[in-house]
Amino acid sequence: MDAKEIIARRVAMELEDQDLVNLGIGLPTMVANYIEGKEIYLQSENGLIGLGPTPDEQNIDMDLTNAGGQAVTLKEGGMYFDSLLSFSIIRGGHVDKTILGSLQVDEQGNLANWIIPGKMVPGMGGAMDLVTGAKKVIIAMTHTNKGKPKILKECTLPLTAKGEVDLIVTEMGVIEVKEDGLHLIEYNAPHTVQDVINATEAYLHTNEAKENTLWNK
Amino acid sequence: MKTIEPVNQITKYVKDGMSVMVGGFMGCGTPEAFIDELLKANIKDLTIICNDAGYPNKGVGKLIVNGQVSHLIASHIGLNPEAGKRMGEGTMKVTLVPQGTLAEQIRAAGAGLGGILTPTGVGTIVEEGKKVINVDGKPYLLEKALHADIALIYATASDQYGNLIHEKTTRNFNPVMALAAKKVIALTRTIKPIDPNCITTPHVLVNHLMKEGN
Q1: Which of A59, A83, A116, B150 could covalently link to A55 via disulfide, CB atoms 3.0 to 4.6 Å apart?
Q2: What is the CATH number of the domain that holds B190?
Q3: Chain A with chain B: Cβ pairs closer than 8 A
Q4: What's the whole-number mean pLDDT along residues A63-90?
Q5: ipTM of the assembly?
Q6: Which element (helix H / strand E) includes B37?
Q7: Under a CB-based contact definition with an 8 Å cutoff, are residues B189 and B155 in contact?
């Protein structure tokens, strides 16, 4: 199992039956592969709820795509709508969980994931609305960028939103964002609590940290 | 009833320097044949309002590559490297707008509102230069209505009156853009009777109707 699979599997455990969930592009999309025994309604912000599996080649319909422009399918019970209704659902607090990748997250629950000035300017797309409106914001990302901490005292990149992150899931563990800062609630053996602290710039409360064994499965 | 005009007539309506809304989301539900006519006629200095910058060979991305766009207002440009390049060089102005804000700004223009109050972007660079208004103790950004000279929209079907449906995920920004521009030109895939219960864009919003391959 690689780091991304660990993260996707752990995030999938956060989802509850009948949740309306929005999965960002990249790693968060993988979460869909690990949903077991629960009915989850996946939204694609370009205009559908009930996102199904990728179609095989002969069933590709380019009138039916996800927010990344790729051909997808619609599950039974699914429906289509326009951008206005899609973002009313998002901003209006009707999305239970939004799962996004991030470049940086900090002690105040701020996140930065849409721009590296002078380097990469993809735009925010729907991310700013999603993190502002969703009931719970879960960040799914690798703990560091090739050893460089991404969980910081304070984000240095332009923010996507202020104080909206609720949970951070990495290959090393799970961190909850609370009023008084970041709490490590799980660490993934063979990583130790000290390993997680060493890979994190932000201060971590660790008194509640429990070991889990995702790596061994 | 509407006259079905040939697609190449689009250049009678879209002129240099105009602001143009274009429906579609990463090319899905984009009136591609209109883009091709604008390319052929090399209509320049356009302000394009669209969800995204498309791809270099799809959607409004083709107009960007050909240097016909002076200002792009969009939520995402990441899948068209040419857009980022021109933004960096300063040869095209790019205004990045959160996607939900973009949709509501267009709706405001089409619904006779001066703007909207949204929590999206508070405390980020999106807030710069904008009024922050507190309502019951919560901060919101005042985002003004976004108008355009022309809206180019796509329908998977139209009836003879110009009532439109946009099936599956082709709907996206198409219905709301039909509200917000001075002139609305629709490209449809087919002409056929449509159940009045299913119409998503009423014909009174559509000024000109054209059919793909015509």
Answers
A1: A59
A2: 3.40.1080.10
A3: 144
A4: 96
A5: 0.97
A6: helix B32-41
A7: yes
pLDDT band at A3 (very low <50, low <70, confident <90, very high): very high
Task: Please indicate if any CB of chain A lies within 8 Å of the CB of B171.
Answer: yes
pLDDT tens digits for range B121-166: 999 999 999 999 999 999 999 999 999 999 999 999 999 999 999 9
- Cα gap B2→B210, rounded to integer Å: 10
User: What's the DSSP call for residue B61?
Assistant: H
Residues B75, B25: Cα–Cα separation, whole Å: 10
Q: Do B75 and A133 touch (CB under 8 A)?
A: no
CA B36 to chain centre: 16
Q: Which residue in B28, B168, B176 is closest to A84 by CB distance?
A: B176
What is the Cα–Cα distance from A123 to A77, expressed in whole angstroms?
32
The partner residue sitting opposite A81, judged by closest CB among B29, B167, B171, is B171
Q: What is the DSSP letter of A53?
A: P
Among B26, B78, B124, the residue with its CB nearest the CB of A128 is B124
Residue B199 within any structural domain of the chain: yes
Is residue B199 within 8 angstroms of chain A, CB to CB? no
Tokens 């054209």 -> residue: B210
Residue B127 lies in a domain: no
**Annotated catalytic, A45?**
yes
Write the residue in A84, A127, A132 that is nearest to B119 by C-beta: A132
Check CB contact of B188 with chain A, cutoff 8 Å: no
Q: CA-CA distance, B121 to B3, in Å (whole number)?
A: 44
How many domains would you assign to chain B? Answer: 1
- B75–chain A Cβ distance below 8 A for any pair: yes
Q: Give the neighbor-by-neighbor strand order of the sheet with B93-96.
A: B4-5, B208-211, B181-188, B148-155, B19-22, B46-49, B69-74, B93-96
Range of the structural domain that residue B47 is part of: 14-96+148-206
B20 forms beta bridges with: B48, B150
Domain extent for A101: 3-216
**Residue in the structure block whose two tokens are 């200002």:** B71
How many distinct structural domains can be found in chain A? 1
Catalytic, out of A14, A36, A45, A76: A45
Chain B neighbors of A163, CB-CB under 8 A: 123
> Which CATH number belongs to the domain containing residue A30 in this structure?
3.40.1080.10
Which stretches in chain B have pLDDT values below 50? none
pTM for the model stands at 0.97
Rounded to a whole number of angstroms, the CA Rg of chain A reads: 17
Q: Is the CB of B25 less than 8 angstroms away from the CB of A83?
A: yes
